């Protein structure tokens, strides 16, 4: 009985690795090599496992396959969009501030920096869905990757219920060319 269940699980795992279960066509890997790292994305949905490696600091495990809590300080690495080194880009962070955070902290101020250059801060005092949008000058978008560091002026301290420092709930972060 256990052996049959293990065999069934093994077959399902193999099917998932080959693509969709029940599909007899193997995935096309002809354009990939082991030496090639995956290409960075310009937009990261924070719960997407394919881009999770771009969340480089201050992000907690994904919740409900849709979001992640952050710490007070957190960072992401993004690929500059095509043409952004000439025209600049617009940075967007989509997130939520739960009522429990604002009940305790009253407001939070979010800042970001790119290559050591600070972007304007924004203060949030209402719970719910929020957006942080800032222009990034072209001079900061050279190269194949840009690290963006975010910081909140305060966060919930670790406590008895949750041992993590909790800032905001990230949904996605990205850049688009201007």
Characteristics:
Jelly Rolls, 41% strand, alpha+beta, 178 residues, disordered N terminus, globular, 3 helices
**Biggest sheet architecture:** 9 strands, antiparallel
| Structural class estimated from helices and strands | alpha+beta
Oligomer: single chain
CATH topology: Jelly Rolls
Helix proportion of residues, in percent?
Answer: 10-25%
User: What would you call the shape?
Assistant: globular
- CATH superfamily, by name, is Galactose-binding domain-like
Count the E strands: 9
Q: What's the average pLDDT?
A: 85
- The CATH architecture name reads Sandwich
Under CATH at level 1, the class stands as Mainly Beta
Topology pattern, helix = H, strand = E: HEEEHEHEEEEE
Terminal Cα separation, in Å? Answer: 60 Å
Beta-strand portion reads 35-45%
Radius of gyration: 20 Å
Brief description of this entry?
This protein is an alpha+beta fold. Helices cover 16% and strands 41% of the residues.
What does this structure look like?
By secondary structure, this protein is an alpha+beta fold. It has one domain: Sandwich (Jelly Rolls). The protein is built from three helices and nine strands. The longest helix has 17 residues. The chain is globular, with a radius of gyration of 20 Å. The N terminus is likely disordered.
